[in-house]
Amino acid sequence: MEEQKDVREKEIAIFKGTRLILGHTTKTRKKQELELLISHRFGRLNSGPHELWGLDNSSVRIGLDYGVSDLLDVGVGRSSFDKSFDFFLKYKLISQTKGNERPVSVLLFSSLAIRTTPKDKDDPTYDFKERLAYTYQAIISRKFSSKLSLQVSPTYLIRNRPLDLTDQDKLFAVGIGGRFQATPSLSINIETFQRVNAEANSTEFNAVSLGVDIETGGHVFQLHLTNSQMTFERAFIAETTDDFFNGDIHFGFNISRTFNLKKK
Fold first, then answer.
1. Residue 18 in contact with residue 65, Cβ under 8 Å?
2. Chain centre to alpha carbon of residue 56
3. What is the CB neighbour count within 10 angstroms for residue 60?
4. What is the tens place of the pLDDT at every residue in 29-54?
């Protein structure tokens, strides 16, 4: 019986944060934990000294993630980009165990994003329904060793009305990412979201990101280089207009603080 318990022991710390860089990971909050997450992206590094290499321009998302149970998270966020609100649910369907009984973790994710840019500063023909976008993901991760974890995220995105009417309103994408634990307190992360059925003449680019996670006193501080200034699914998957490989790179960071709301 003891051997059976050991085989079914769950893998821990597959990823240290609930976000890899832009996208979610298979990590969920514990029951009655509340996470405050601030995601900040500056302007393009190649914008020059007049813009202080991007520091004069920024995009911010402030979000709250709450653990309804150890397996179910709910969250809400507000982004300065498009004055957008996003709401999400994530449910861990399978947890990876030590050994090969359950070799991967699987998490189901769904989000709703709402653009609230005032009509006088936007296209006045947009009605409320056309401002909505939906994202559905299955996030599959595996911890291969104490140093290496990888994940893949098949994604289906629906925009009731794309910003560019020639774009796809239904978009398939695949997120691919990984973490390499370089030292006990520092990991190197990489992530990309590849659009599968984007128009051949699309003016948007696939999101590409590099980052590091720094653990300090039980908290994770994340530093990033990415071509997407936006930090919620509809925007960074479908509306990234900068080319990472042409130098259109944004520096940014995630800061999180977790509160335990359980009664003592």
1. yes
2. 24
3. 14
4. 999 999 999 999 999 999 999 999 88
Query: Using alpha carbons only, what angle is made at residue 82 by residues 77 and 83, rounded to the nearest 5 degrees?
Result: 50
In angstroms and rounded to an integer, the radius of gyration of the C-alpha atoms of the chain is: 19
- Would you state the structure tokens that stand for residue 142, as one six-digit string? 């595996």
Hunting for tokens 């699309």 — which residue is that?
202
pLDDT in tens, 155-198: 999 999 887 766 789 999 999 999 999 999 999 999 999 999 98
What amino acid is encoded at 137 in this protein? Q
Of 85, 86, 109, 87, nearest to 27 (Cα)?
A: 109
162's tokens: 């794309």
SS3 9: coil
| Domain-wise residue ranges, the chain | 2-260
- Name the CATH architecture for the domain at 2-260: Beta Barrel (2.40)
Cα(first)–Cα(last) distance of the chain, in Å? 33
Closest CA to 17 of 262, 264, 259, 255: 255
